[in-house]
Amino acid sequence: MGQPQAAYRATLGRSFRLLGAFRREQADPESFYGLMARDTVAQLAAYTGLDGATVIDVGAGSGFFTRELTRAGARCAGVDVDAGEITAYGPPRGDCVVGSALRLPFGTGTADVCFSSNVLEHVPDPWQMADEMVRVTRPGGVVYLSFTNWLSPWGGHETSPWHYLGGHRAARRYERRHGRPPKNRYGTSLHPVSIGDTLAWARRRADVRVLDALPRYHPSWAKGVVRIPGLREVVTWNLVLVLRKTAP
Question: Which residue ranges does the record assign to the Methyltransferase type domain (predicted)?
Fold first, then answer.
């Protein structure tokens, strides 16, 4: 397995580029998710070598991250519960299997890296998913877990910012305005996950060490906000948690 790359620098310009691409997500999803995948893989490569690494992409969806991980030299296997999502943009990009994030179809300790982007808030038991990610990672391997926290301005996804008044209320408002229910339905495919609870989960585990916890889309100088309870839940938008699995 290759060595980690040079330190990744998250600049203010990079934040604006991601924001600009996000605004075009609906009109040009391939451009947005392609940019996100390239940026995220560069970030991940600062923590662990990817060339020759075995990587599991949990909640791989249409395979944008799987493709970039493969381009970085990784042997990548994606898993997603939705077969339709896997083929939404054509044939699967790399190896991909249908399976649940709550019971990953991989053996214990089989991955050098277990990766997930924006999936944790979509499963009914986020801690079971997180536990599964640790399980399939070998000792010394890396877990990269990113998710949108509920109290962020985008916590309700397409129902935002009305989720601050309650998830069910926000969903009803969305349906009245658009004539259809939101894709991400509160209590079914969208669940509230907090940064505080996620950090507490990591601290409870004796077999992982936190390498980093940072706001995904912010400049590097904003990293300290994750250490401020309360404030972090609102201004972080999306948390990246990077763990090293330790020896049993």
Answer: 56-144
